[in-house]
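Input set for joint prediction.
Command: fold jointly, output tokens.
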Amino acid sequence: MKGNEALAEAVIRSGCRFYGGYPITPQNEILEYISWRMPEVGGAFVQAESELAAINMVLGAASAGARALTSSSGPGYSLFQEGISYLVAGDIPAVIIDVARFGSGIGEISQGQCDYKLVTRGNGHGDSHLLVLAPCSVQESVDLMMQAFPLAEKYRHPVILLSDAAIGQMVEPVNLPEPQTVDINRDAWTVKGCKGQDESKKITNVFYYMDDYNSYLRDKYQKMQEEEQRWESIMTEDAQLILVAYGISARVCKEAVRMAREKGVRLGLIRPISIFPYPGKAFKNIPDSCKALMTVEMSITGQMAEDVRLAVNCRYPVYTYGTGIKVPGSSDVVRYASDIIEGKIDKEVF
Amino acid sequence: MGKVVLHTQRCKGCYLCIRECPKKAIRKSGINNKKGYEVIEVDGQLCVACGTCYVVCPDYVLEIHREETT
Amino acid sequence: MVIKAPDRITYTDGHSFCPGCGHGTAIRLIGEVLQELKLEEDSIIVLDVACGGMPIDVWRYDTIEAAHGRPVPTAVGVKMVRPDQPVLAYLGDGAAYSIGLAETIHSARRNDNIVVIVLNNCVFGMTGGQMSPTTLQGQVTTSSPNGKNMESGGATLDVVKLLSSMDIAYLARGAICDAANIRKAKKYIKKAMEKQLNQEGFSLVELLSPCPTNWKMTPSRCADHIKEHVTSIFPVGEFIGKEGEQV
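tokens >
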């Protein structure tokens, strides 16, 4: 199946029963697919007037008890910021898909990985951080989608699935999971009418109801740090240099590791699957053989390098092979990594 | 007829009730509530419990108790 | 017989609106309508922020406080999930007609089966009385100190007029200025809720409301001002869906 369509089917199978969205390339297949598929399962689809409206419809639908989702790409994701901040403030679980494209402004509709800071650091005003999952294949898009709502509900917090144009447009075989359904009345906190109750439910984004909001929010993020770090490590045990890449770039890096090893260059790979919380645990046992780390990402400035530096506590140099709009080539990755090992590269980041 | 029960602790002294009362039965009382507003009082002789004050009061100060007519 | 504000509203010792503010009356009217239609325990209400968000502390209906200007799409999300339950959005003119105008118009375009109550006091109240799109020409506000005019603030926007050509269930404008108009306003709200129960679609009821603090007038003077001036610019009445009981 095509990545976006497989993901859209997973949205339905994950029990999502409300989707509001606005067209933007390269994620239109998700909106289009859900427009006919959602009514088949008795859910609601709205093509919203804007991303602002869409994210706030999601807020309403999730507050009313449904698994609710919206999707967009960079420029539209920027417009979600306001609503995301309110989702965080209101402790409202929801899932947002960003099929990333390239560039600031209108940019390009082709693949990109330059929403990294937006999804890990952005997400509106306040101390808003979202749990962010970044698949690197069509199958993983589906698998992570199936985990997204349970995670959102575990933390009563919005979750982002960060795909990109390449994964969204590629066609791969995929195993689809069994469909899930949830009862919209399952949670006590959702608005559903106050029959038989003296008090009513209030979904608010002000904090004077809570004695210690600071601790509440810190504890929530702390628990995510402890329980939700996800990654894949490949041949890091004896690596001279460890590549760090997520999403589409990580696929390239897997090939680069294989190619390099054939030439006798010992590369390894850490592939973050959760990018917030960042999988710092993956960097705890870096071998003595390792001289440096190198992020491979389709951003211009190496947006993830900062997280890697923090993860290694600046004990190793962290380089970036940032290709911007181009999908990195595995042989180019090997060449650049070899140059770093041989001391030929001065600048760590652009 | 009937009577008006006052929750003057809610009164904010807007006096829209005084303005709208068709019987001129409401006036300032000279008494301040905890919030510091001079609250209203109702002249039971003049009041016909028509409920106009209830309708215009933004602060739910007035409750109208009407006797059932048979 | 006792006439008093619904129990689900008055549970606090008064609310924190300014003296003479129209919000207190408006939310009581909503409460009375829900009580009379026996919808108190089924309804879900979506509020804006600022003054219009304060009812969340005053009443006991299931309530969401949405982002500024977004109660309408939020209410749409709720209604899509719970189509059999009454959903009402309550917001000010800044929210519905300025930052959230697109959301208001598009909800009307879809004829979403919700009720939208807009409290129009011609200013941004909570933030200190800056001009809004409904500020009258010549009106002095904290951001139009010399009086709003075309050069420094643009025209005065009548959204009820704008919506009057659309295919929606109900459209009316009332005024919170005296007992007769307040009683009428309540009938408009009730009619709008009945339209929703009948699955007829989108209803909007605008309530012209005093803001004594920011208009810098006594509550009594505000009432005169609405009657004499504001209603001449924003006429009251029913504009769509007036069939049935004459209000």
